[in-house]
Structure to design on (198 residues):
């Protein structure tokens, strides 16, 4: 089985990158035949700006830009998609959101039919979401941020495309004894990527 881990953080030495690496270790620890590709959006220089060519592709009047086609091929090659990101303003970073805006395109991730129906095209793709929160779980629950994030990301993006969200968790860094404790949790999540039930 092959997992694509998409990580969005500008600093390679960040806890976010360490968590992504721990998830990858968990995946390969669970089964030596498993493979992992880590897509580092910042290091790779992915352009998250939804531009006129993306809009034309959305309207189905032009082909998708080549960088979008390349990202879709990475996902098509994966048996699971894992997103690892810090929570910025109670959501994912702009670069990761821009990656989704551009890559999860009409005709590939979903299809808008002329009769108004939406066809969900990613039903075969299990998704695992791992955010790193700078506030504690109590703050998230008190203000409804956890529910808002699930509505916005799990339902609003992935359910719209039919991709089942198997894991949706925030590692609440302030609640852990030390930031490094998140690495053990991440590695355990990785071990379950291909055994978790939908």
């Amino acid at each position: 089985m092959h997992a694509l881990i998409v990580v969005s953080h500008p600093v390679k030495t960040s806890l976010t990158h360490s968590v992504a690496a721990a998830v990858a270790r968990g995946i390969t620890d669970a089964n030596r035949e498993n493979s992992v590709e880590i897509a580092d959006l910042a290091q790779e220089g992915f352009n998250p700006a939804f531009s006129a060519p993306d809009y034309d592709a959305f309207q189905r009047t032009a082909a998708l830009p080549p960088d979008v086609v390349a990202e879709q091929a990475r996902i098509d090659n994966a048996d699971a998609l894992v997103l690892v990101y810090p929570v910025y303003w109670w959501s994912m970073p702009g670069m990761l959101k821009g990656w989704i805006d551009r890559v999860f395109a009409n005709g590939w991730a979903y299809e808008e039919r002329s009769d108004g129906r939406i066809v969900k095209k990613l039903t075969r793709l299990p998704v695992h979401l791992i955010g790193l929160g700078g506030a504690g779980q109590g703050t998230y629950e008190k203000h409804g941020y956890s529910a808002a994030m699930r509505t916005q990301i799990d339902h609003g993006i992935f359910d719209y495309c039919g991709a089942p969200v198997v894991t949706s968790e925030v590692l609440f860094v302030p609640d852990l004894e030390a930031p490094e404790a998140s690495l053990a949790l991440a590695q355990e999540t990785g071990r379950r990527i291909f055994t978790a039930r939908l």
Residues 2-192 form a domain with the Rossmann fold fold (CATH 3.40.50.360). The radius of gyration is 17 Å. The CA atoms of residues 111 and 119 lie 5 Å apart.
